[in-house]
């Protein structure tokens, strides 16, 4: 069914830009005062509906995007695990795995650096208080706390950890929305998972009461125009 006016053709073209019926009506030349009602009327027009659907089908075919692909994208975002990107973890303290739960050093280089610092800070005429290496070496800050550590009581300390986003899973990559440094430190941006679930629910028609209400409002607006 062909469109009856040039304004309708322009409306269809403009509606495809942002899917905003009111703004599309204004850009098509309808009065801004009645654009909201005009947009609703045009969307209710069978010819306009068919023209919009045909244009959408052509556009989807051109870029090879289907409704199933879009739905799968939203599902991937909604079900992705944010912990893959950034998480809070409890890590061990320096005493957790040292011999006898004494202070543990990363390696001999770190210990020697601490010894030199103690010598430099010693007061004249007094021997320096050198640190002990009884706890040994091999401290790994990524290990969980030792449950029987007398120094931290098995609590260790908390740490925020951001993953290398180059190696995220496909789902987590869709959830990840970028990162930047601010005055407060690193800021990780994530796509809205609640919004993704909302889009899925709307796509599947789960909001029955809302659909009914919108339908009634549209019918009422159309009746007012008659």
Structure overview:
The chain has 226 residues and is mainly alpha-helical. It has two domains: 6-79 and 194-225, Orthogonal Bundle (Arc Repressor Mutant, subunit A); 88-162, no CATH class. It has nine helices and four strands. A hairpin with a 2-residue loop joins strand 3 (176-182) and strand 4. The longest helix is centred in the N-terminal third of the chain and has 18 residues, at 46-63. It is elongated.
What is the structure about, briefly put?
The chain is mainly alpha-helical.
Keywords:
226 residues, Arc Repressor Mutant, subunit A, 2 domains, two-stranded antiparallel sheet
How do the strands of the widest beta sheet line up side by side?
A: 1-2
CATH superfamily of the largest domain: Terminase, small subunit, N-terminal DNA-binding domain, HTH motif
Task: Return residue spans where pLDDT drops below 50 for at least 5 consecutive residues.
Answer: 219-226
At the fold tier of CATH, the topology name of the largest domain is Arc Repressor Mutant, subunit A
Strand content: 5-15%
Categorize the overall geometry.
elongated
By DSSP (H or I, 4+ residues per run), the number of helices equals: 9
When the domains are counted, the total is: 2
Could you say which structural class the secondary elements and strand pairing correspond to? Answer: mainly alpha
Helix content: 40-55%
Count of extended strands: 4
Q: Radius of gyration in whole Å, from Cα?
A: 32 Å
